[in-house]
Amino acid sequence: MERALTIKDLPVTAEEATLAPEKMKLLRGGRAVQVTVDGQRPGTVDDWQMNIAIFEGRINGPYIV
Predict the structure, then answer these.
(1) C-alpha distances out from residue 27 to 4, 7, 10, 14, 34, Å
(2) Is the pTM of this model over 0.70?
């Protein structure tokens, strides 16, 4: 038996607004987080961008909470 997962969107009401794809690309945010690069050099990264890179599989490691 083949398994399938179906996720349906919630209905949109008149009170809700949506962002166009162009606006979604402009979303930025996060905190400046101190990290150690290669176990030696200190650095600063944006935790939002780091978590997105982990989610996309571009880098490995735990999410920054």
Answers:
(1) 32, 24, 22, 23, 22
(2) no
Q: Which amino acid is at 4?
A: A
| Non-local CB neighbours of 34 within 8 Å, separated by 6+ positions | 42, 43, 44
Token pair 């690069």 in the structure block, residue: 37
Residue 20 has which token pair? Answer: 């166009």
Q: Please, is 58 exposed, middle or buried when counting C-beta atoms within 10 Å of its C-beta (0-12, 13-18, 19+)?
A: exposed
Q: Which helix (H) or strand (E) holds 23?
A: helix 21-26
For 3-47, the pLDDT digits (tens) are 776 667 666 666 556 777 777 666 666 788 888 888 888 888 888
In this structure, what token pair is assigned to residue 21? 């794809």
**What is the amino acid identity at position 3?**
R
